Amino acid sequence: MLLWRTVKLLIGFEGTHYEGWQSQKKNKTLQELIEKQLSRILKEKTNVISSSRTDSGVHARGLVAHFRTQNTLQDKKIKDALNFYLPKDVVVFSAKTVSNDFHARYTAKSKVYVYEIWNAPTRPLFEAPFVLWLPHRINLSRMKQAAKPFIGRHDFGAFRDKGEKEKSAVREIKQLRIRKNKSMIRIKIEASGFLRHMVRIIVGTLIEVGRNKISPEAIPQMIRSKDRTQAGPTAKPHGLTLLKVKY
Which of 8, 52, 229, 236 gets the highest tally of CB atoms within 10 A of its CB? Predict the structure, then answer.
């Protein structure tokens, strides 16, 4: 009798041409793509569970997923076969058999995202698919001031999509750092978990602060309000990349 084993995947992708991770009936998704190729390789129907349900257009350098299989194919051969069949905008960095109690989503301790902004009068070239172009002048010190109240455990009801199904909006942001190197502004955020569109709404709010449309002092009350209409706009998805999932 063959035993079940759990295989952990580390995946990177350019999300431009995908409608996020989770399978949908009509749209092209990463889950659907990877499950199709795994079933082809393992000769069995394979359900792949991800650490993060990335939005349409969002990228990843370190998304973690897992699946269970009775197939005895070696980890390296699974990785190599996936990379042979997958399109060029998706890469499997590793495949590793792990303990059967591992769960890509539920055993994750935190997730790290980065949002990149190209802040220059001239549009970006090679960076264009991965950054938000903002030709306007940005006040970085105001953005850094506004970032501080987000850190800690809060109800982020004001910073989630109206269609979010999670009952609790309480999350803990462990770090929120803003750095600028020449034309590139990088907003790095780590949290115990994220609500739908939470990172993009926080970034959209910080951009409004940087453009002097929202005061940094307004952020604490915005958080306390738990009201989505009080926060800033949702930043576009293509500037967002999932960097790492910590276990």
Answer: 52
Asked whether 170 and 103 are in contact (CB, 8 A), the reply is no
Catalytic residue among 55, 75, 89, 161: 55
Give the chain's mean pLDDT: 95
Residues paired with 190 in a beta bridge? 112, 175
CA dist list (Å): 127 to 58, 118, 146: 14, 8, 26
pLDDT in tens, 189-244: 999 999 999 999 999 999 999 999 999 999 999 999 999 999 999 999 999 999 99
pLDDT for 26: 62
Please work out, in degrees rounded to the nearest 5, the angle formed at the alpha carbon of residue 117 by the alpha carbons of 176 and 211: 80
Cβ atoms 192, 172 nearer than 8 A: yes
pLDDT tens-digit map of 45-102: 999 999 998 889 999 999 999 999 999 999 999 999 999 999 999 999 999 999 999 9
Q: Which of 205, 57, 190, 193 is nearest to 131 (CA)?
A: 57
Catalytic residue check, 55: yes
23 burial (CB, 10 Å; 0-12 / 13-18 / 19+) is middle
Give the residue among 36, 24, 29, 35 at the shortest CA–CA distance from 13: 29
Provide the token pair at 144. 């850094």
Instruction: Name the pTM for this structure.
Output: 0.93
- Integer-rounded Cα Rg, in Å, for the chain is 19
DSSP 8-class letter at 223 = H
Q: How many residues does the chain have?
A: 247
Q: Provide the pLDDT for residue 15.
A: 94
Residue with tokens 């970032």: 147
